[in-house]
Amino acid sequence: MKALIHFALHRRGLVIGVTLGLMAAGLYALQHIAFDAFPDLTGTRVEVITVAPGMAPEEVERLVTYPIESSLMGVPDAEGVRSVSKFGLSLVTVPFPDNVDVYFARQLVQQRLNDAKAALPAGVESALGPVSTPMGELYQYVLTSDSLSLTELKTLHDYTVRPRLRTVPGVSEVNSWGGLTERVEVIVDPVKLAARRLTIADVHDALARNTLAFGGSYLEQGGERYTLRGLGRVENTNDVLRVQVGAYLGAPVRVSDIGTVVVGALPRNGAVTHDGKEEVVSGMVLKLKGADSRDVIKLVRERMAEIQKALPPSVKVTPFYDQTELVGRTTTTIVKNLVEGGLLVIAVLFLFLRNVRAALIVASVIPISMLIAFIGMGLFGYSANLMSLGALDFGLIVDASIVMIESFIRRIESHRDTHRLGLFERAAVEVGRPILFGIAIIVAVYIPIFTLDGMEGRMFKPMAFTVVCAVLGSLFLALTYVPAVASWALRDGEATQAPWLTKLTARYRRVLASVMKRPQPLLITAVILVVIAVGSLSKIGTEFMPKLDEGSILITTRRLPSVGMQDATKLSMAAERIVKQFPEVVTVVTKEGRPDLATEAMGLFEGDMYVILKPRVEWTTAKDPEALVAALDSALRVVPGLWVSFTQPLAMRLDEAESGIKTDLGIKVVGPDLGQNETIAERLRAIVASVPGSADVAVEIADGSGQVRMEIKREALAQYGLSVADVRDAIELAMGSQVAAELIDGFRRVAIVVRLPEASRADAASLSRLTIRAPGGELVPLSAVANVQTTTGPEMIGHEDAQRRSLVLSNVRGRDLGSFVQEVRARIARDAVLPAGVFLEWGGQYENQQRATSRLMLVVPGALFLIFGLLYLSFRSISQALLVLANVPFALVGGIAALWVRQLNLNLSASIGFIALFGIAVLNGVVMVEHLNHLRHAPDEQTLNVLDRILLGAADRLRPVLMTALVASLGFVPMALSTSPGSEVQRPLASVVIGGLITSTVLTLFVLPVLYGWLEDRREARLARRTATRQAHSSAVPVTG
Prior knowledge:
alpha+beta; Multidrug efflux transporter AcrB transmembrane fold; Alpha-Beta Plaits; 5 domains; nine-stranded antiparallel β-sheet; 34 helices; 55% helix; 20% strand; elongated; Acrflvin-R; Efflux RND transporter permease subunit
């Protein structure tokens, strides 16, 4: 280190050149770093989507989901398997650790799926979901028109809008939601079919045979080759009507003789409503995992502007959810807080140093260190976001430079005639060691953050990485750039201490002298404060993370599981009209059911209502999001049969991705019997609802879906010579579930299906009259071979690691999550008895909180031990290492007091604040003790006794200690006081650091010198005893001669 400082002072030009090179590299990295609102908080995961048309949830579970789950159990590095089985859909999710590459994970899953193919029903195939994450839902929009139908809008979206958006770089997928997908329906008349001795299967087979394109190789004629091309496809509905089905009494029977042809729509599993006025078509752009959100949305907007020009004039594409708005708001918050914090830091520098050049030198370290941090972020793939930059404290960055520049100024003030470079070198070497160990300690306290897993690790690792890069950069600058520039820029006579600081130093010395003569009251008070603070910690509310204000609300809605599409959309629009009446609301869009690409397993009875809000300054009926949610909740209670739960778009997606739960708390009832699980879940729901603070309590609906059940009469089936497959085909054809052929219009493919009229398939009774042709030619009614009855069954079946589970869901309002869950667990333990084979798992935000707390409880003591090791290496003294480490409990006092004063919960953000606080507090102690040790060996101070030496050293270090504490705390003040979007995450961290620095600074300035004096007295007493012993031994030796 001494050689590095010597080199920097004697090769100043080279040092400046290297610094400029780092700045250029940092600016380059800044241009290429991705900008997001947050780091991607969802881990690596692979979704397996399997569409099984016509299958009920029970059959999907047994025939599709379970074989897939079984094949995926034990995939290398997989962290489990969870699934949802619904009507016609199986959705299996396989999470992986963050360090597993997503493409490698997909490869592992695909290999296992290939093995599972043989176990799946014929015609059922699995596909992997998009290479995206829930946070990749960047941009959502609706298509509206005054003149076009939902079918026409859907066609425009699927064949014009969607294909062009999918080609945008960084877009993984564009999902379509709502609208009607066109199909051609041949509606046959059962009476006319029966009169001509035909069945619906005959019509289906005729269409399949008569709608073909074919080829026959080629012909050679006259030295030329001619390709054979057969054109047998139908091109319009008239062609369909002319297809011959059979013959009756010698006359051909065409489709037109036994039915009609209409342009209809595929049965749909989802719909979208807008502002309570109409149904619309919606699209959602999914970002490729790892792509830059800001760049992707910019390109999407540009492409959308081009697409809009190509659409009919009556069609309008309106975005309603755009993540760049959140990115912009959080970026504004970050920049505002950093600029304000930087200005406060610079003001402190001018105030204490009273030297423009010195202050500018230290201030210049801030942007250069930031640019060095950008280099690290670029090299390791971190994005610029609220977490990576939002908790960066400029005071921490300039700590090392403050200590260095203060040492220069003090030397200039007292040694003006000394050789200039030698003076700067001695001043730098004196503080170089404590600076080096101080930065090492700062890095050490952030090590626990790198051990965090799950969402908490993905959230705070970027912050820790950026801080470590910045402080390491500031260390390099403090040891090279600052000495080089200061030795050139600082002038003799400029460095004079401010009169107010001189007076403060004198008063501090007098007070410290008084305290050191009677230290007992101070020490007793300090110990009492520590005991009170630590004791009160258990009374502070706990939670995983504060809720971030995204600027919009997402209301998850539910109705009865048997609700039809028409009633579902009516209820949604009724709720939208109520919400739209609030002046804070810009627009409301509700997405019901699932999209075309089934990345979500919602039923028709479920919906996500996006409530887009005006800026907070324009609100009139509510002062904050909590009040607005309460008002909306109260207003929506008038909608009959509607259950609502309030969250935010990103928050809901993150919760769902992490544990499959969309609420703050989810209790998983895991057991083999679905009905038993539901019964237990209902009992638990009542218990949870009785606990104060519970909100939106419900059991995830798994039962109550309407079914028409057909139980086969096997003896009757055998009597007629029929098979179960014959019955299945007859039912599927009657309902229009089997595609007979396709009508191709350009690149657009329209399915052609055959089905019965609505009246012939309206209920179980009408289906019972459906006829099936037996091998002997007779027509057999369905009622003869099957019992047809209306009943209810599961709407969905959820699995955790291939075990059935039910869910109890609850949000928490007006209370902290930790105490709420503790009370819930206590009441369940008291009032609920679980049968054998059934157990509970606790998920949602609570699961994240417990995991993070457990990890921090394990690694923070290890970090403190590491700090102790560094202190011992610095001082070569266990007692002095423990002395400096005593700053930690005193820093706790202020941090805990700040949580009480500001009425904040103890969450992960506050915990990270405590970790950062420990480093800064210890750093101040290192600076003080190192200087006191230096004075012990200084030739000029050998005549001073312990008290005078401590008073001198403490007075010398008053300025750097106060500067360090002030710049560190004031750098966090804008974050602590900010109410801008994104500040919710920063506020607990900043408040803890500010409060802790107040008490730890008092310790450094008063308690630490007292304890240091006590240790020095003991050391000198030991030395005196040893000296006396040696003298006594020498006098006792006889003189011979």
